[in-house]
Design a protein that fits this description.
Elements (H helix, E strand, L loop, with lengths): L4 H6 L5 E3 L9 H9 L4 E4 L5 H14 L4 E6 L8 H18 L14 H10 L4 E5 L5 H9 L3 E6 L2 H9 L4 E5 L5 E2 L14 H11 L4 E4 L5 H9 L4 E4 L1 H4 L8 H9 L5 E4 L7 E4 L2 H6 L11 H15 L22 H18 L8
Parallel strand pairs: 1-9, 2-3, 3-4, 4-5, 5-6, 6-8, 8-9
Antiparallel strand pairs: 7-11, 10-11
Helix pairs in contact: 2-3, 3-5, 4-13, 9-14
This protein binds flavin mononucleotide.
């Protein structure tokens, strides 16, 4: 039941991918729990070193013999402007003072080197490699293919989906504007590429011939059924797994998520330099009137890291990044396997029962 091209090819029971969520949510335990339940768990490894990836993958493999994915960020070139960084640091220092941490700290490196992360992924022969923020170059795509790794790219427009298909990826995540976390947009401005899942998925499905995975707002079986009707071969769910006990999200983050409602998210570039959807926080509100240039990703991400970490330690969610999609009222603090099983059960029920006597006449 619910077999699609994706489930057949990946040898998974259900067309449900748990999104890679960098920053600690996707523990090896969460990834393995989803894969053991018949979905595809994903390690969000965007902020991990190669060594951390190796350790996490070994742990996943100890907990499951089913397929799983590792997700990385495709690096983009960026300009480093010292004045912009200094000006941003002056404003960020007001948060640092409140948290009692040193002002304007030195940043050793803005991001983990992609080529080292990728080497680990290839060497470990992970079954599935998913990515966002761009397209790997042709040499990287060749290496992934040679290693027999299934690749999944992220698109927020039809143009991006076509570019991914042209580059030889095996499947495309169509990320609607409801989605929590970073926008995967790489070919357009993030502000213009805010297409809702309902509008994006069928347009992507019409444009490309490889499998389409709908992301953004799928929280239960109704969402899965709807996405399959739109032409998707599967769904990628992020927010729905954050409050699960296996998730590594901070307790205050889980609590905030469970209490939040659909109008309480916003898209901001203030945490990382790149547009991302999360619960509206005091940090976002105060930074929304920032008058200067926000340094690009990954610089801004590195500049706010100490603040986010100190806030987590001090249990101050108002200064943490609380990435979340718009399906907030449907978040449940249940084990990941229950999210998968219930989503499948309710999708089958919805498909069978919603309009049992549908008839064109
Ligand atoms: C906390 C969080 C972190 C995320 N981190 C990543 C990431 O590292 N890589 C990625 O490809 N997508 C990431 N995403 C986006 C998801 O892949 C997916 O598009 C999104 O969760 C789907 O929308 P939903 O949250 O409404 O289910 C993240 C989403 C969330 C909520």
């Amino acid at each position: 039941m619910l077999r699609t091209r994706l489930t057949e090819r990946l040898k998974i029971a259900y067309p449900i991918i748990q999104a890679g969520m960098a920053g600690g949510v996707t523990t090896p335990e969460l990834v393995a729990a989803v894969s053991n339940a018949g979905g595809l768990g994903t390690l969000g490894a965007g902020y991990m070193s190669a060594e951390q990836i190796r350790f996490a993958v070994e742990t996943i493999r100890r907990h499951t013999d089913r397929p799983f994915a590792v997700n990385l960020f495709i690096p983009e070139s960026y300009q480093e402007n010292v004045e912009d960084i200094q000006a941003m640091n002056r404003t960020l220092d007001t948060f640092r003072n409140e948290l009692g941490i040193p002002n304007s700290p030195e940043i050793a490196k803005a991001a983990e080197p992609f080529h080292e992360q990728l080497d680990a992924v290839i060497e470990l022969k992970v079954p599935v490699f998913s990515f966002t923020f761009g397209i790997p170059d042709s040499a990287v795509m060749r290496r992934l293919k040679q290693a027999g790794i299934y690749t999944i790219g992220t698109a927020t427009t039809v143009k991006e989906a076509l570019a991914l298909e042209d580059a030889g990826v095996d499947a495309v995540v169509a990320q609607g504007s409801e989605a929590g976390g970073h926008r995967g947009t790489f070919a357009d401005k993030a502000e213009t590429a805010l297409i809702g899942t309902l509008a994006l998925v069928p347009q992507v499905a019409d444009a490309i011939s490889i499998p389409v995975i709908a992301a953004g707002g799928t929280m239960d079986g109704r969402g899965l059924a709807a996405c399959l009707m739109l032409g998707a071969d599967g769904v990628q769910m992020g927010t729905a797994f954050i409050a699960s006990p296996e998730s590594g999200a901070h307790p205050a983050y889980k609590k905030a998520l469970e209490a939040a409602t659909e109008e309480q998210t916003a898209i901001t570039a203030m945490y990382s330099g790149k547009a991302a959807r999360g619960l509206m926080t005091t940090f976002m509100k105060r930074m929304s009137s920032y008058p200067g240039n926000v340094p690009p990703y990954p610089i801004q991400n590195a500049l706010t890291r100490d603040i986010r970490q100190a806030a987590a330690k001090a249990n101050r969610p108002e200064y943490m990044s609380l990435w979340a999609g718009q399906g907030l009222r449907l978040v449940k603090p249940v084990p990941a396997a229950v999210v998968v099983e219930e989503t499948v059960r309710k999708a089958v029920e919805a498909i069978r029962n919603r309009i049992p006597n549908a008839d064109p006449s």
